Protein 1
Amino acid sequence: MSEPEGFHPPPYPYDRLDDLRKQAASLPGGAVDLSIGTPCDPPPAAVVAALGDSGAERGYPPSTGTAAYRAAAAGWLARRFGVTVDPDQVAACVGTKEFVASVPQYLRLRTPGRDTVLYPAISYPTYAMGATLTGCRAVAYDDLAGIADADADRALCLWVNSPVNPTGDLIDLPAAAAWGRERGVPVLSDECYIEFTWDGPGRTILAAGSDGVVAVHSLSKRSNLAGARAGFYAGDESLVHYLSEVRKHAGFMVPGPVQAAAVAAFGDDAHVDEQRERYRRRLALMTAALAAIGVACPAPRGAFYLWVLAPGGDAWALAGRLAAEGGAVVSPGEFYGPAGSGHVRIAVVQPDERIALVAQRLGTPTGDFPHAGPPAT
Ligand SMILES: Cc1ncc(COP(=O)(O)O)c(C=O)c1O
């Protein structure tokens, strides 16, 4: 069959790291993969147990989430962030990547006259990919004030993300909500790192009210459950209702046992407190390792990434050096948009002793990592 004329999926960004991965793997002790933000630590035992003994595998699970799932999500938002949403303003998604990638399609069905997805210039690539997969325009913005009226008038949605992947910034969510309300553009706020903030408490856009906004949440990072695929979106009642109805027709369902496990995960904060301390320790270790080779990086305000300006702006050179000398695989910033091309992103998602190994290889004085801790189980 001849090649299609239309869209060709680009190479998956992380596949472009294969050479770096091989180089890192050639060091004694092997590669330490700090490229993809995938958790390595265990979820709580009660959550894993619920996957096996819920009895929820026989029938089809509700697409919007069981009443218990939606109540647990709403309960978590109230307990941790002081916002009240009715469980009817909450619906399940199968992890959040599928939601991010597919929501432009459904917003376009709802508002056929619009065709544009606005997304931050340095960001998680799926915001732009969702527009592309829908045949829409993906328009990057540096800041809200710089968005052209002509683009805002065509916008299906504005994406914001805080804490920001990859930069670790925290952004002004109430300002984003106000921008969207003034222009009649739904604001979708990706808050999957909300539990990991290093500069004050986690903030949700819902604190500024739910009118015209939808917060998107995941258990992947909060509870180390990326393999189970559980998330939810919550906020503006009519938007959540519309999206949950079309998604029901499209057959999106969080598996029943995963819904049961998610209820247990949303109900527990102790495991998140532990995880927060792990990431805090690992960020400090990795910062010390970079300092040992003369590379300074600012402390992130949230999330579990270091966003490092590469010497001379050459991100691939820094990634190559970290692979060759430290055995660490990191992501060049261009994966998160052309504006990120002078940086690398380092995800501290390996056990403490693996990150300490990178630090040792890079010549960090051992006094800088006395608390490398026991191997993760
Ligand atoms: C900013 C951001 N949003 C969404 C996701 C998707 O996470 P999941 O699909 O596991 O919920 C990720 C994963 O890395 C992310 O970094």
Protein 2
Amino acid sequence: MKRILVIGAKGMLGRDLVTVLQTSQSNDLTKGFEIIGWDLDEIDIGQEASTLSRIENLRPASVINVAAYTDVDGCEKNRDQAFRVNAEGMKHVAMGAKACGAKVVYLSTDYVFDGKKKEPYLESDLPNPLNVYGQTKLKGEQYLQEWMEDYLIIRTQWLYGRHGKNFVSSVLRQAREKQVLTIVDDQTGSPTYTIDLSKAILALIQHNSRGIFHVTNQTACTWYTFGQAILNFSKMEGVKVIPISSESLGRAAVRPFYSVLDTQKLKRETGMSLRHWSEALKEYLGEINSK
Ligand SMILES: NC(=O)c1ccc[n+]([C@@H]2O[C@H](COP(=O)([O-])OP(=O)(O)OC[C@H]3O[C@@H](n4cnc5c(N)ncnc54)[C@H](OP(=O)(O)O)[C@@H]3O)[C@@H](O)[C@H]2O)c1
């Protein structure tokens, strides 16, 4: 049986992606395919020899790499570890996939851009990462492009979903603990639901798409606006939100002020356009609050 391997399958995106791939068994892509999810228990992509042999022995038809060191501030302090997982890790996966003729999909980030453009970034725009996380993810993209002619790179941003710590869970937790929250109001991006992203990843694979694609939910907002929407949709309007600057937060990693991704290429390729971020958020909150 042909296999699709998801690496990073226990992470926030990985869990939803495996579910979306498994539940789409009726369509042509995954019909007759076995979906296999690996995480750190099964593979450490930072280790070259074992990564190569694990992938070669499995002989998957496709490998989707969503494993990463995703603590953006942690990456500033642990540069070597960030490079080992995000950059070298992607190279090792590409080497293993190449050895058995598998296709590779890599999840990358808006943080490859410096945020100075002031209008949505195209796939063809020149990256210029401001922080270590962005640098290591960009290096991962470059390794993949060096090793494989046939690659799919999907850049996304501001993810939230049921299976990981994220901005939505953090705002809800803080709102249960205190009456006043402070949220950054000078960074603009597109909040993106992991289920919607997983469906777009599936669509791109189904279209046998190659190259770089930007995938996010539609339209952009600041973290402050996103935070207010989370509270409003959760009927927690009593909690006050004060807008603050990124500078006042004093975080280790510099973030781009404007890293909105243009997703027209996804629409042209697949006919698909992800819904407005507030619609996705409403559905997500409805789901987690009903449990
Ligand atoms: N979250 C976002 O807002 C965002 C935005 C843009 C792009 N992305 C990209 O989207 C992808 C998924 O992100 P996510 O938020 O779902 O990440 P996540 O929840 O942190 O999941 C990543 C998974 O990879 C695993 N992992 C870490 N190091 C590994 C290694 N050396 N070998 C194998 N597995 C390893 C992690 O295990 P541990 O948890 O045990 O370390 C975790 O299960 C990543 O490529 C990320 O760069 C995310």
Protein 3
Amino acid sequence: MLTYKAPLRDMKFLMNDVFDFQTHYKTLNTGENADAETVDMILQGMADFAEGVISPLYQPADEEGCKFDNGEVTTPTGFKDAYQQYVEGGWQGVSYPEEYGGMNLPMSLNLVKSEMIGTANWPWSMYPGLSTGCINTILHYGDKEQKDLYLPKLVEGSWSGTMCLTEAQAGTDLGQVKTKAEPNDDGTFRINGTKIFISSGEHDLTDNIVHIVLARLPHAPEGTKGISLFIVPKFIPDADGEAGERNGVTCGSIEHKMGISSSATCVLNFDDATGYLIGKPHKGLRAMFTFMNTARMGTAIQAVAHSELAFQNALPYAKERRSMRALSGTKEPNEVADTIINHADVRRLLLTMKAFAEGGRSMIYHAARYADKMAEGIAEGDEEKFEKWDDKIGFYTPVLKGFLTEIANEVAKHGIQIYGGHGYIKEWGMELIARDARISTLYEGTTGVQALDLLGRKVILGSKGKVVRDYTASVMKWCGEYALDKDMRKFVWALTKLCAEWNTLTVRIMLMARKDREIISAACDDYLMYAGYTMMAYHWARMAAVAYKKLEEGGEESPEFYKAKIQTAEFYFDKILPRASGHAESMMTPSEVMTGMDAESFSFLD
Ligand SMILES: Cc1cc2nc3c(=O)[nH]c(=O)nc-3n(C[C@H](O)[C@H](O)[C@H](O)COP(=O)(O)OP(=O)(O)OC[C@H]3O[C@@H](n4cnc5c(N)ncnc54)[C@H](O)[C@@H]3O)c2cc1C
């Protein structure tokens, strides 16, 4: 049976010692209320809810799944009650403005909260999670009437939200969206079309569901330039702002999936549904990006969540399961065999899991500080501020989403491996983590799309390499501070070399791309993974630096925690970081190696 314990010690290490959130909060308007005591209270409250309320539901709910009957979806036993407790605790509103009923705390606290509930029970967390993007979109692009009507209920959590982009023919390529929006005389729109794969599209947790829908106005330009965004509530709000008349949006079916079976993935039919334009006509995709950046960050958190849960549950097993003797000599002579944690190869698996879970958390908490500034821009209606920080996050988003979800699948695989054959058996839950983690590289833009976004849009077209020059300059500046530190020398030396190499690789790819555009597609996956391993190296070096300092200072905290951080950093640099070299070499392969083969020559089946 899987169990979850919130890693508060590690979270606080990052928030207090590595990134000094308290000083950062002083630079925010929303930071006023986020004093150390309040932050601790939020962390503890969320940990209690995650560990005690939703974690025990995770495995049984997977077995039970969601039920579909005549357009209605019933979530698994316990989900509704847990959701009610979540609403009563005010948890949905942690980072939203007080005028809509929120606590007005920084967005980073919402992300930390998402990590805890996501690790305890990812599919459950998707119901409130999808609402976050909906709230952000209405906050950013809605008019006053829309904000006043929808935000209080969404922030309270009594209504939930969805994002309705995908159609059967239009997934990655949203330019192919066909759903139609025709104007009514009263300023509303008639929405007709079918959306597929809509998470939380129908369920029994809330009084109303607010769909954010991509659709085309009559005579709209072809492709992505002709898409507009609409609010389509399941129940049209009445004069008192309560869920009123039933709208023409119904759930046609739910998907039977490999994982996240307790998250309802719905086909939604829009039949003359009443919709309300949000933002400007034909600018829907731009507006949807607010939604998507939040959602992609959410998926990166999913990666850390699965990594953490797999690691937490593999470790005790490795300390109990006995098999053979350690090669260096018997460790437990009074037992029939040594525990498997005594074998270096099992330690390789465990340390990889630990390095990825904690390294990924550090990468997210770092970006969360930019999310704080971006969210403040949205809440204050300050477009310039929003754009500035959205741009900054834009460089990190594809790496966090693409790289962390790929390595989370590796962690989940290692979790099964540590359990041996038992890992393949449902009872232990390790196969559940692997099944649930698998979706993370697919939705919110596949890894391929993240990689193209990073190399094509952010690095080459968007900045001609400047984003990499800026990022590596900041890493090298940090390395400079430790140049004479003998403990840190091995880390900063490796990082400095990587920074120089990353810039060289970027220039070489840009030059190659002038003659051969396909190289961007051919090299982007290697580029993404290279960027991910390099960024994570920087994070492990930073954590090691803080750990050395803490050990030197002494104090009340146990030194073992810091020693383990340094040892994990060493493991990461010695055993994992060499993978970056392979990606560096591979990304320089001419695209011809991939594009050269005729499509008909891939197989010669009769
Ligand atoms: C469980 C689940 C939940 C989901 N939740 C939602 C939701 O709430 N709302 C919503 O709107 N959608 C949702 N989706 C849809 C999801 O976002 C899409 O499935 C995803 O974006 C991929 O689209 P697709 O399935 O059409 O694949 P395709 O776009 O057909 O892609 C197929 C393959 O081709 C590759 N590819 C495509 N174009 C390119 C290119 N230009 N260059 C290189 N490679 C390319 C892709 O990387 C992928 O490997 C969900 C899907 C699932 C399975």
